[in-house]
């Protein structure tokens, strides 16, 4: 297998799902961490001027969704069954739709940003969290009766949501959604994932621990 290098910032963000897929799969990789202050000097070296980027030998793979599916396949976390694979994608697209609600808020001033996000969580965001609860209602895994990319991606999205990175989103938001919180804690308690955050559970990553 070619050497793998994941290029991204030190925060979880869009790089964390790939990090966890590789970690769960026991696949060695180099986590190349960038500072926001020095990132502009490296931007032109990336395929589309953005990160994350996964360096696979001499090739550079961009776009987080592509990287996540590639690393999941390497780790045996992406189902071979077409319907189960579609269930994984369904969950990931649902989370993408949810986070798109917040995209316009990143351009707002601080006070407006907080107010806008709280309004989303009381409106369309609340409806979407209801859909996510419905998706996770069985209490099991998202596809195939075992851990998959779908579970990891949803868990990472939920953890990012309440990590404190998004001003205005309460860190205890999931307390109001017991099905979602139970799912979060289930995936956070997976041995490889739990071990990963035992040494990385500070700052934003505190939200990735069980019962966070």
TrEMBL record:
PROSITE patterns: GST_CTER (PS50405), GST_NTER (PS50404). It comes from the Eukaryota. InterPro entries: Glutathione-S-Trfase_C-like (IPR010987), Glutathione-S-Trfase_C_sf (IPR036282), Glutathione_S-Trfase (IPR040079), Glutathione_S-Trfase_N (IPR004045), GST_C (IPR004046), GST_superfamily (IPR050213), Thioredoxin-like_sf (IPR036249). Gene3D superfamilies: 1.20.1050.10, Glutaredoxin. One of its GO terms (molecular function) is glutathione transferase activity. Residues 2-79 form the GST N-terminal domain. GO terms for biological process: glutathione metabolic process. Residues 81-211 form the GST C-terminal domain. This is Hematopoietic prostaglandin D synthase. It comes from Tetrabaena socialis. The lineage of its organism: Eukaryota, Viridiplantae, Chlorophyta, core chlorophytes, Chlorophyceae.
């Amino acid at each position: 297998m070619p050497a793998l290098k994941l290029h991204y910032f030190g925060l979880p963000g869009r790089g964390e799902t790939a990090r966890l897929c590789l970690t769960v799969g026991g696949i060695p990789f180099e986590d190349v961490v960038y500072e926001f202050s020095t990132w502009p000097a490296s931007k032109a070296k990336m395929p589309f001027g953005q990160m994350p980027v996964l360096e696979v030998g001499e090739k550079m793979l961009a776009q987080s969704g592509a990287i996540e599916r590639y690393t999941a396949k390497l780790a045996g976390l992406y189902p071979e069954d077409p319907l189960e694979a579609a269930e994984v994608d369904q969950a990931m697209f649902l989370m993408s739709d949810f986070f798109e609600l917040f995209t316009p808020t990143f351009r707002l001033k601080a006070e407006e940003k907080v107010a806008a996000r709280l309004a989303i969580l009381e409106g369309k965001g609340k409806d979407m969290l209801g859909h996510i609860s419905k998706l996770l209602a069985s209490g099991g895994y998202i596809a195939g009766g075992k851990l998959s990319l779908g579970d990891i991606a949803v868990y990472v999205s939920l953890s990012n949501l309440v990590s404190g990175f998004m001003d205005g989103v309460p860190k205890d938001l999931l307390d109001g959604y017991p099905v979602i919180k139970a799912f979060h804690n289930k995936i956070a308690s997976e041995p490889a994932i739990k071990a990963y955050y035992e040494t990385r559970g500070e700052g934003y990553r505190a939200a990735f621990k069980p019962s966070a």
